[in-house]
Amino acid sequence: MKVPRLRLSEDEYALIKQLRKKGVASELVNQCDEAGLPLSNVKHFWYKSEKFSIFSKTDGLQLEDVFDPIIKDVQRYSPKMRKIKRAKVKNPHCLILDPADIHVGKYATNSEAGESYDIKKAVSIVDTGIDSLIQKASGFPLDKIIFVIGNDCLHIDSPRNTTTAGTGVDVSGSWHEAFLAAKDMYVRAIEKCLPLADVEIIFCPSNHDFMSGFMLAHTIKAYFRQSKNITFDVSIAHRKYTA
Fold it and tell me: d(Cα 158, Cα 155) in Å, to the nearest integer?
């Protein structure tokens, strides 16, 4: 076997190649998660064992690489949906729903903030708001609904109760409780929209939940993947256009 670097033995070189495979990538993700570090910021890492202490590159590990297996699992269990056939709309209108700055997981007390806030209240406000806007739009013939997700839907972006940039904040519940509550909230809202018109989902990245918000958007896309009446633009791009 030809060794590309003279300073490495064959065993050392073989180990380095193994480190660059997904097994070590998964462990790296776990370590970053425990430390509250953004995975995208990790460019190199040390690996130590009984025999070696090696400085290695991550081989361009991206958040998408880690999240793809999760999305595939969600897709396996996404509900089947029949295509809704719609009559042609005269004088068509577009309804835009943009529940921004929800901050699911935020905690506030009445004594400090003048109003209490937690996961349950955040979700309830959105549920009520969506119902109210749909009711107000009921007098207009709709041919499309644009539903904007993201915009600080989640309050934190790490298990250490910090935003993406590392700012500590007060939280209600755990990060996974907030994520699941937000997922269910979006599912309910979209299911309310579907009987009215085809829906276009647009994701807007934000500073509190840059990574987890992206994951949430792709979870919603995977959940509704069977629907022919929903389109998605959930890229990480900060600026998006539609017509």
Answer: 10
Inter-CA distances, 190 with 12, 29, 193, 219, 236, Å: 53, 31, 5, 13, 21
* Residue type at position 65: D
Answer whether 126's CB lies under 8 Å from 189's CB.
Answer: yes
Ranking 10-14, 110-114, 173-177, 179-183 by mean pLDDT, the lowest is 10-14
Q: How far apart are CA 191 and CA 143, in angstroms?
A: 16
Asked which of 8-22, 85-99, 113-127 is least confident by mean pLDDT, the reply is: 8-22
Domains of the chain in start order, with CATH, are 10-61 (no CATH), 86-233 (3.30.750)
Tokens (6 digits) for 159: 């298990």
HEC assignment per residue over 138-174: HHCCEEEEEEEEECCCECCCCCCCECCCCCECCECCC
